[in-house]
Amino acid sequence: MKSREEEYKEIFIAEALEYFDALNRHISDLEKRPQDEQILAEIFRLLHNLKANAKAIGYLNISDVSHKLETAFSLIRNKELSFSDEVVTVLFEGIDLLGELIHNIDNASYGDPDPVLLRNLDIIVDNLSDSTIELAKVQRYNTSKNLSLSELVYIQIKKLDHLLNLVGELVIDRDRIVSISRELENDELKNVSSHLNRITEDLQYSIMDARLVGIGSLFNKFPRIVRDIATAEGKDVDLTMAGHDIQIDRNILQIITDSLLHLVRNAITHGIEKPENRLKKGKPRNGSLSLIARNDRENVQIQLTDDGKGIDLTQVRKAIVERQLLPASTVEHLSDTEALSYLFEPGFSLAKEVTEFSGRGVGLDVVKNAVDSIGGRIRIESQKGKGTTFILQLPTSIAVKGALLFEVDEIFYAIPLIHTEQVVALEVEELHEVGGVMVADIFGETITVVYLHELLNVKEQEMNLGDKTKLKGMVQNIIIVSYNNRKLGIIVDKLYRQQDIVVKPLSKPLDAVELYGGVTLLGSGKVCLVLDVPAITRYFISRKQVLAGEHNF
Question: Domain Histidine kinase: where (predicted)?
Answer without folding.
Answer: 195-398
